[in-house]
Amino acid sequence: MAKADAENAPKKGPSIFIQLALLLLLTGAAAGTGWLTGSLMTGEKPTVGTGSQIGAENSYDDLPGSDDVAEALHVFRLEPISTNLADPIDIWARMELALVFNEIPDPMVAEAIHQDFVAYLRTVKARQIQGASGFQHLRTDLEERARIRSNGRVDKVLVRTLLFE
C-alpha cells in the first residue's frame, strides 16, 4: 500500500520562486544582449547613390597628406587597366593596381610593368581566376612579373580594384 501512495503522490518540481528568478534572469540577459547589439550597430545608414557618388564618398585620395604617405611607403599607383580576357573574349576585366617599391619609385619602370600587366591579362582565361585561390594565383603571377621587369625593385603588387563585365 505504501508503494501505491508513493506512486500517486504528485511529483514536485522547482518552486515558484526559482521559476520566477530564472524568468527574470533570462529576461535581463535578453535585454542586455539586445542593448549591447543595438549600441554596436549604431552609426550611419547606407545611402543609395550611383557608383561614382559612392566611390567619391569613400575615396581616400582627398585626405591631407595621402600623397606624402604614399611617397614614404614608396607606393606608385598605375593607371587602370581595361582589357578583354583570352577566354571567353566577351568578358572584360578592369583592374586598378599599385606597386610597392623597395626604393623611390621609377615612373619608367612602372610604365613598363603596366604594359606587361596589360599583355598578361589578355592571356588569362576566366576559369583561371575564379575563386579565392584563382585570385591569389593572379596576384602571385603579377608580383612575379613585376619583380622580373623591375629587377627586384618592386616588393608587392596591390590590387585596388578588380571588376569583370
Walk me through the topology.
Blueprint (H helix, E strand, L loop, with lengths): L1 H7 L7 H25 L10 H7 L8 H7 L2 E3 L3 E4 L7 E10 L5 H15 L9 H19 L4 E11 L1
Question: How does this model look, in words?
Answer:
This protein is α+β, with helices and mostly antiparallel strands and 165 residues long. It has a domain at 65-164: Tetrahydropterin Synthase, Chain A, CATH 3.30.479.30. The protein is 48% helix and 17% strand. It has six helices and four strands; from the N terminus they run H-H-H-H-E-E-E-H-H-E. Strands 1, 2, 3 and 4 form a four-stranded antiparallel β-sheet that branches. It is elongated and about 95 Å long.
Rounded Rg: 31 Å
- The H-and-E topology, N to C, reads as HHHHEEEHHE
Give the CATH topology of the domain at 65-164.
Tetrahydropterin Synthase, Chain A
Number of distinct beta strands? 4
Give start-end ranges of low-pLDDT stretches.
none
| CATH class category of the domain at 65-164 | Alpha Beta
N-end to C-end Cα span: 86 Å
Q: What's the overall geometry?
A: elongated
Strand content: 15-25%
User: Which bin fits the share of residues in helices?
Assistant: 40-55%
Q: From the coordinates shown, what is the CATH architecture of the domain at 65-164?
A: 2-Layer Sandwich
Fourth-level CATH superfamily of the domain at 65-164: Band 7 domain
Largest sheet: 4 strands, antiparallel
Classify the secondary structure makeup into a structural class.
alpha+beta
How many helical stretches?
A: 6
**Rounded mean pLDDT score:** 82
